[in-house]
Amino acid sequence: MILCFDIGNTNIVLGIVENKKIINTYRFVTNASLTEDEYFHKLQSIVKNLQIEGVVISSVVPSLDLIFVQMIKKYFNINPMIIGPGIKSGLKLRIEAPKTLGSDLLCDAVGAVNKFGGPVIIVDLGTATKFIVVNDKEEYLGGAIAPGMNGSLNSLIQNAAKLSHTALAKPDNVIGNDTTTCIQSGMIYGTASMIDGMVNKTIEELNLPNVKVVLTGGLAPVIKDVLTIDYIYEPLILIEGLIYLYYKNAK
């Protein structure tokens, strides 16, 4: 078995993988103040009866990189594979400064291309709302990054004195009839319209009439039912990418 860690700014997703298949997943809140011992305590009951032969990590939280490497070496006696510069992905990175490409973006792209082929647009809704484009030649062309829904909502509440925290939930109508439903509409329908528009503009700009759109990320369930574009919902596409990268690069 291998462990696949997706360390994001808001959550950490752990995928348990056997014979290249995801058999279970777990989600934890990201906490940069925890030690390697405290993180292992969270995992202990999950992994205690597993025969772990490898670990692969995608992280966008640099302060946790060393914590997880130390934890894995200490408790599993394994040197984890860290997704970053030098990793063989099978994709051609047609972008400026490829070494700066986020591991989450690379894993999303690899997972989608190897599952569905190109051309493909991946929309990943998390701390940020990310758009990733790979063409039919398996060339990573770039993408776009917008603020995530939670960050946008929190910023609005913090900067508008009369507004209070509102749950991210889909209101019944686009036009709200009180402050809560107005905020919810702006967040849900506004973000959905942005995604619809960005995908359609990307298709037009890059001439991708037969492109597949893959929707993923922790906030995708909140918004997927109000999108008008055609999409494939794949909540674990990043973990799928980690699996592929692990076996492609394992020695």
Task: Describe this structure as you would to a colleague.
With 251 residues, the protein is of the alpha/beta class. The chain has helices at residues 36-47, 62-76, 103-116, 149-159, 179-206, 220-223, 237-249, and strands at 2-7, 11-18, 21-29, 54-59, 81-82, 92-93, 120-125, 128-134, 139-147, 212-216, 232-233. The protein is 39% helix and 25% strand. A 6-stranded mixed beta sheet has the order 6-9-8-7-10-11, with helices on both faces. A 5-stranded mixed beta sheet has the order 3-2-1-4-5, with helices on both faces. Helix 1 (36-47) packs across helix 2 (62-76).
Short description:
This protein has 251 residues and is an alpha/beta fold. Helices cover 39% and strands 25% of the residues. It has helices at 36-47, 62-76, 103-116, 149-159, 179-206, 220-223, 237-249; strands spanning 2-7, 11-18, 21-29, 54-59, 81-82, 92-93, 120-125, 128-134, 139-147, 212-216, 232-233.
CATH topology of the largest domain: Nucleotidyltransferase, domain 5
Strand content: 15-25%
Mean of residue pLDDT?
95
- The low-confidence parts are none
Taking the alpha carbons of the first and last residues, their distance comes to 16 Å
Helix and strand pattern: EEEHEHEEHEEEHHEHEH
- Percent range of helical residues: 25-40%
Helix-and-strand structural type: alpha/beta
CATH superfamily of the largest domain: ATPase, nucleotide binding domain
Count of strand segments: 11
Shape: globular
**CATH class division of the largest domain:** Alpha Beta
